[in-house]
Write a structure and sequence with these properties.
The protein has 208 residues and is mainly β. The chain is 7% helix and 64% strand. Strands 1, 2, 3, 4, 5, 6, 7, 8, 9, 10, 11 and 12 form a 12-stranded antiparallel beta sheet that branches. The longest helix is centred in the middle third of the chain and has 8 residues, at 81-88. It is flat, with a radius of gyration of 20 Å.
Amino acid sequence: FTMKLDLKTNLGAYNSVPMSYAEGTLDLFSYVRGTNSNVKFEVTLPVALDREGRKLGGKLSIDYINDVTRIKYDVKSNLKLDDALNIADFIEPTSIGPIKCVTHPEVVVKGQTGVSAQDSGFNDLHVSSKVAKAKFFNLDLYDVTTEFVLRGDALQFRKINAHGKNGGKISAIVSLHMPEFDENKISIKGSVDYKEGSLDELFDLFGI
């Protein structure tokens, strides 16, 4: 069974995020293999706009095969960070509480994930982002660029670069190991390099 829908809509919402316009295709494939009914669902959005004209576009594929759900991403977003996370429905916005994007970020997501801890071996997700101004706790950051990779149950933030309000240059690497994606088992390690700034800014960086 196959079905293809051409989408062109105004004033809708996705995962409670208001959108002003979306254009693309929805493709549904269903086939029987043995006793299993397998499903593949693809969303292709060349362009979608939120109520303020910010863009979301790309392709999302959801496979349900042999009772296992897996997702593949090729997406670019200029939406507000909370809105992008709500649409992705993968990371709760509250889980990144100390991080605030003052201006809207540009985010590129490519790769694949499972939807359960038991299927973490399928995870291979690459994300890059940049934002003109952000806050980490009470620290103002500018021209922030990051790359992170989720592979298996390990999340590594690498190539984190920014500068502070007094010109200090900040670079960091942070790794999280998340066995079974249990928040009580998470271990974190990282390093931060800071130079060409001020003592006040350095104290802000460490919350002193």
